[in-house]
Amino acid sequence: MGWSSWNQFGVEINEKLIIETIDAMVSNGMRDAGYIYVNLDDGWQQDKGKRQNKALDYDKEKFPRGITFLSEYAHKNGMKLGIYSGPGETTCAGFSGSLGYEKQDADMFASWNVDHLKYDSCCSHKDASKQELKEIFYKMSKPLIDNPKDIVLHACHCGWEDIWEWAGDIGANHWRIGQDISDDFDYSENREDYYFDVLDMLDRGDGLEEFNKPGQWNDFDMLVVGLNGESKELVGAGASNIEYRAHFSLWSILATPLLTGTDVRNLDAYTLETLTNKEVIALNQDPLGKQAKTVKKTGKIHVLAKPMSDGSWAVAMLNRGSETQKISIDWKQDLGLDWDEVHVRDLWKHKDMGSFSTNYDDEVISHQAVVLRIYPGK
Ligand code: GAL
Fold first, then answer.
1. Which of 285, 310, 332 is the last residue of a domain?
2. I need a surface site. Which of 200, 233, 241, 375 has the fewest CB within 10 A?
3. Which of 224, 252, 285 is the last residue of a domain?
4. CATH code assigned at 40
5. Which residue CA neighbors atom 6 of ligand 1 most closely?
6. Substitution site in 122, 176, 221 for ligand 1 pocket (most atoms within 8 Å of beta carbon)
7. pLDDT (tens digit, 9 = 90+) per residue, 248-276?
8. Separation of 98 CA from ligand 1 center, angstroms?
9. Do 14 and 77 sit in the same domain of this protein?
10. Is the per-residue pLDDT at 378 higher than 90?
11. In ligand 1, which atom is closest to the CA atom of 93?
12. Measuring from each residue's beta carbon to the nearest atom of ligand 1, which residues come in under 6 Å?
């Protein structure tokens, strides 16, 4: 869990923004809710274009005191710092990449004491085989593994060549399952023939449950909660509070990285409440690390569920349609649970709803997700 600079700010990042972001996450409760990583995405680098036999360097105007200063600042505040590069001659925004300099860069990131690396291919190597891709990412993964400093590795490759099947084996900790998310809940097409809205991304990850496990995560992309169509970088018209809350509920129950992509210095009360709902976050952070499965999909009704480490189950009842619908979960039929009595808690209402013998239902408004935790017995 953490924050990443890209969705809201694009390459317009600097030391002041990062320090203010850390300060805000400490004071608004996000850090204590679990958002630990503060990740610089593309745009921290000094040079554009092909590497000229030089070490990668940070932009001296944007980051006058350097990256180590920021990692120390993050650590002093109980947080971690992430950085960004890629296996090309240049990154997606045209800055110099790590191709041919992988070990040198890995060692330098470690010497800067960073804790996370997003290593982004920009959907390149379209014709490369799985084997070639494994080698490309392993060139960065190996020196990171060899370095005594622990660095989480995000292998970002648009979900191509079934990356979920092999990225964990070469040492990646999470991998994007698709192209970029757009700031839309349910846009009719793929914007610019490229972007996925929230529901597209949900469907893209359906069926990938077996590849999600502790330390190896399917990454449904950074959250768009709270962007409100105002991102400097992402396309999209924004979504309603209800839709952003549904998006957050889904990413939580899917146990995908929760990387906030919005400006956390100015969050309105509703957005902050969405991002810091500890009962919903607990689904994301559960030690079993299970990605919820679709257990029912009829018309515009979509129900996902997963087992939790304490024996309870988490359930999300999503209404994908434009009319209010009654959605029901039947634990014997839908979840295969032999429970004669079930205690239901609603995680957005923060309320125990009582005990039920066969099923539980609720009126779910358009694009809302009702999130439940169900326990056997009273
Ligand atoms: C894209 C990536 C985005 C962002 C961007 C930076 O390829 O999917 O999440 O990192 O590059 O240029």
1. 285
2. 241
3. 285
4. 3.20.20.70
5. 42
6. 122
7. 999 999 999 999 999 999 999 999 999 99
8. 15
9. yes
10. no
11. 12
12. 6, 41-42, 91-93, 120, 122, 156, 180
Per-residue DSSP letter, 335? H
Distance CA 295, CA 260 (A): 27
pLDDT score recorded for residue 366: 98
Residues 88 and 230 in one domain: yes
Is the domain of 276 the same as that of 230? yes
180 as an active site residue: the answer is: yes
Which residue among 41, 42, 105, 120 is the active-site one? 120
Residues 302 and 170 in one domain: no
Can you tell me which atom of ligand 1 is nearest the CA of 84?
A: 10
120 included as an active-site residue: yes
Q: Which CATH number covers residue 306?
A: 2.60.40.1180
User: How far apart are alpha carbons 87 and 123 in whole angstroms?
Assistant: 11
Alpha-carbon distance 33 to 309, whole Å? 19
Distance 84 CA to ligand 1 centre (A): 9
Q: What is the mean pLDDT of the chain?
A: 97
3-state SS track over 107-162: HHHHHCCCCEEEEECCCCCCCCCHHHHHHHHHHHHHHHHHCCCCCEEEEECCCHHH
